[in-house]
Structure formats: C-alpha cells, structure tokens
Automatic annotation (TrEMBL):
Protein name (Swiss-Prot/TrEMBL): Cytochrome P450 CYP5203
Record GO biological process: lipid metabolic process
GO molecular function annotation: heme binding; iron ion binding; monooxygenase activity; oxidoreductase activity, acting on paired donors, with incorporation or reduction of molecular oxygen
Residues that span the membrane, as ranges: 21-39
Amino acid sequence: MEVVARFVADLRKKNILSSNLSVASTAAIGVLILLALRYPDRAIFTEHREGVPHDKGLPLVGQLFSLLKNKYRIHDFQAEKFVKTMSVLGLPRGVMTIDPRNVEHVLKTNFENYVKSNWFNYCTEHLLGHGIFNANGAQWRWQRKAASLIFNVKNFRDQFTETFSVFIDEIEILCSETLDKAVVSGDAVDIHDHMFRFTLDSFVYLGFGVQLNALKTKGEVTFAASFDACQLYSFEKFMNPLIEFTSVIDRILHPRKKTMKQHIATVDQFAADVISKRRTELANGEVHTDLLSRFMSAKNENDEPLNDKELRDVVLNFIIAGRDTTAQALSWTFYCLANAPEVEEKLFKEIKDYIKDEKKMDSTELYETIKNMTYSHAVFYEVLRLYPSVPNNQKYAINDDVLPDGTKIRKGDTVSWSPYGTARSKNVWGLDAASFNPERWITPEGDLRRESQGKWSVFHGGPRVCLGQNLATLEALVAIIFLVKRYKFTMLPNQNITYETSLTHPMKNGLKVKVEKRA
Ligand code: HEM
C-alpha cells in the first residue's frame, strides 16, 4: 500500500490529481494498481498454468485487444497461438490445443468429463435453444437417440433411393435455373450462394417435407439471411466480451439494419410454419417417416412428447447441420479446384472413367459407383481438412484431468481445439501441411487412407461424432461429380476470398465464377 500512497502523492505534487480527490477514488486507483502489479501480463484473476506456455498480454485485460483486433482472422490467429493459453478479460479461462492425442482424449477417451459449457449455451441459445448441438446429459441423449433412427445404416439404405434422387433433382434445378443460363449469358455466378440454396432446398425437403425453392428464388432468401445473422451474432458473443455495448453502438450507427430480435423472430416463424404444416398433414391422415416425424413421435428427457419450442430447436439445429456445413465444404471445394488445375484434371478424369452417362444410371448403380471413386473422396476429405466446416470448437471440463501431452486441466476450464489450426501444423500433417494435396489421402495400395478422429476431427469424434457424415459425403460427392462433369468453373479475378468468422466456416464475400460447358 505504501507504493500506492507514494504514487498518488506524486500525482498530487504534479497537480495531475485535484486536491479534492475523494478517498474512494484514491482507494479504487490503488486497488487497480495493485491488481495490475499482480496481473501485469494477463487478465485479472488469471493464474499462470504450470507447464502451459503463456501468451503475454496487457495488465488486467490480457489478450482482449489483440483478440478483438484479430477477430476477423480468428482461425489463423488461433492457429498461430494454438499451443498456448491466452487470457482474455471477460472470456472463460481455458487451454487450447492442436495435439491430436489431446483432441481424441477430449472427444472420445474421457468423453464423460467434457461437456458443452454454460458459456457455449449463453453464446448460442438465441439460435440453437436446447437442441442437440447445445445439449448435455439426458437432454442430449434422447435427441441423439431420436436422430440416430434416421441416420442408422439400415434406414439410410432403405431410404437412400429417395435421398439420392432429391440431391440429383436439386442439382438439375441448379443446372437449368442458373448454370446453363450463365453459360449462354456469360454472367458470373456466386457458387457459394448457390451451394447454400442447394443444401437448404435438399435438406428442408428431406428432413421436414417442405419445398422451399431457394434455388428458384431470385434475390435474398429471407429465412436464410436471418439464420446467417443469428450465427454471426453467436460467434461475436464468443469473441467479444463487450458485445452488449458494441451491439448498442451498432444499432445507433445503423438504425435501419434489421435487429437481432427481428432476425430471431424470422427464424422462429420459419420453424413454426414447418411444424404447423406437419401437424395439419398428420391431422389429415398423412404418414411421414422423415426427421421431423421421428422427433414428433419421440419423448423428451421427462418422457413427454416434444412441445413446439423443443421442435423449433430440432428444426433449427438440423438446418445448421444439414445446410451450412455441406454448402461450405462444397464452396471451398470449387475454390480449391479452381486453384489446382492438376487436381481438377485428375478428378475430371476419374469422373469420366466411372460415370459414362449419369442420366442413364439408376440411384443404386450411381451410389455403388460413387462409393468406389477414391480420388473424389480424397479431394473432398482434403478440402474438409483445410477448410473444416466447424473450424474451432470447445468443451468444458467437469473435473480435473491430465491431457495425454501432460497438460493439467482444472475443473471449470474450457478446452478448445482447432481443426483449422491442426490442418496447418507441420508437426501433425508434415511439411506440406498447408498445401492442398488430395494425394495424402491415398495409400500406396491405392486405397483411401483413414485418419484418427483426433488428427482429422472435421466430423468431431467419440459418442458425439457427426450423425450426418455419410449423408453429407454422399450429397457433396453427387454435387461435385455432376457439376465438374458438366462445367468448367473459372474464378473471376481480383476477389478477396476469405472466411467469415461464424459458428461454421462460410466465405465472407462469396465465390464468383465464370461457367463454361465442358465438351
Ligand atoms: C460436410 C458436412 C458436415 C460436417 C463437416 C459436419 C461436422 C460436424 C461436427 C464438427 C459436429 C460436432 C459439432 C459439435 O461441436 O457439437 C457435428 C455434429 C453433428 N452433425 Fe454434422 N457435419 C456435416 C454434415 C452434417 C449433416 C448433413 C447432418 C445431417 C443432418 C449432420 C448432423 C449432425 C448432428 C445431428 C450432429 C450432433 C451430434 C451430437 O452432438 O450428438 N451433419 N457435425
């Protein structure tokens, strides 16, 4: 305290503090100075972690400003920092890792110890509610069980003809409504936007029996725009402890912009319409076996049928799962192919060798053929490796633990991992980690290589592994194969292709391409 008193006296001497400075404010400054001496390079009340390299920041706020400065390139920022711990005022304390052994431990080996945190819940609840992505324990288990009935191998096989033809029909709509016209007119096409429309139409029809026709809609799809805004807001909450304040400023600066409340009302209304349409159909004696009807006949953790709020959460959680992830993976695929002509050539050759005339093949034949197209799978896996649809993720430790690399985890820590960062680590993926190289997925025998869930965690792992992995791979390969076979896409010059920081991994400015028909 003597140090503080001397400091304040010094300020007085220099007339920096007025003589009537209250005792209270002197004490407050004193406390702040003491705290700054105690936490000179990290957020207040953050202790150094034994054995965990610490990234130095400013007194009391830690890395807050550096995080805010880098929030638009957050995945690269984290990839640069990822073997460390960062302390940020206002964000939960935690440890970050890109070590596949640690990731596998958190997802699988010690699954019971790592859950979705209250913080995750706070950041995503306005959109996800208590849906499968935001649930733990019994609340997660009944949702997983209900959804598994749809995605299990038997059901997938029984229903796949219909599933397959939905993907093919939607691709045909994309071709006739947009791509063939662009070939003739020479107009550029935003392939990112159209991939979102393709997966939205396909998934909403398959999952809920609703024909949305986003591919036929000119201009913005209102629901999709609001859904995206809600996701951006979630990510902003993860990154920005000043969100309540910055949102007010944003509202003042952009008074005409749709508010978050209005965006939420739009997505809620969409879900309500889907549910009420299905209730009417059921009342009229229609029989459905899709995702929505499975959940409508499921029971929640209290053994009760789901109410409208629970069904709303189901609809919105599954749209994020079924629309965004696959659309992004497809968009990044066309970006990677446009920048790697030798890969595109090889892919095109495999497609020509296997698919002579797609219009003459029935669903079963097409499915069996696609399953054997090793190079097409390798391209898709490599795109997901470099541009994972969920680029970073986190869980909350219920109890103390030790990660396989020796890092001590304390009860209440957040453990974050970054599939995006792991992909770029030379220690994990070798010297060419950052290059787009589908060959890495092919074994010397010519088979598709399998990687551990810790090293390639793009579909998550352990008991919460992605339920739609097979569906997504099939959908993406149908789209890639049909489109690459028919068209050559060339990127327009001078585009700034980068990601939007969000819960998933969209492109920020889309991807504009010129479309030519292949001979
Ligand atoms: C390329 C496409 C896809 C990728 C990269 C992907 C990736 C992931 C990831 C990383 C998770 C874990 C998220 C978390 O932290 O909770 C996840 C979970 C999940 N995914 Fe996917 N996904 C894809 C497509 C799909 C599709 C098409 C569906 C089907 C609707 C789907 C259904 C689910 C479900 C239901 C979960 C929750 C699992 C649970 O918590 O038990 N996914 N996915």
